[in-house]
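Data availability (excerpt). The following record was deposited with the supplementary files.
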Amino acid sequence: MDGCTPEKLAHWWQRQPAAELCHRLRQHLRHEPRCALTHYLLGCLCFDRGQRACGVRHMMVAHHVEPALESAALLVFAGLNWTDRADVPMLPVLLDTWEEFRRPNFDRRQQERRLLDAFAETCDGLEDASPLARRLWRLPIRVLRAQIREAAVTALAPAHRLLLATASC
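Predicted structure:
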């Protein structure tokens, strides 16, 4: 993989077999240990796999190397909170953390928007979702996206009042 831009990384990511992706990202870190985007994506993969501490570590490095990745900072604190609440899904923990940290607007900087745009997935069925639900959907964490979809289309939505809020987040 050449360079460390969101577009190149996204294109590379999409061509990798899912079973080998984590291994290949780790290999890339051997050659570019300060690639914030690779750390960010590894952190997302770790969260998907339930490896919270590892996810937190990668997000900490990503944010340290590139402070513009504000969602990495949010995910560090959400991940730390999540380790204390092992029996709770990620979404309610992330919502609590987002509220606790005064509702950070984590996709306001161009570099972060480019990363989130590069890994964006369509959110069919979420067109009428709140701005917060659409913003959280942009985080490339499959487990989180599944929980958002479930909460938005089922009776779980009232339990996550922040996902229902129509006000700008």
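Summary of structural features: The radius of gyration is 15 Å.
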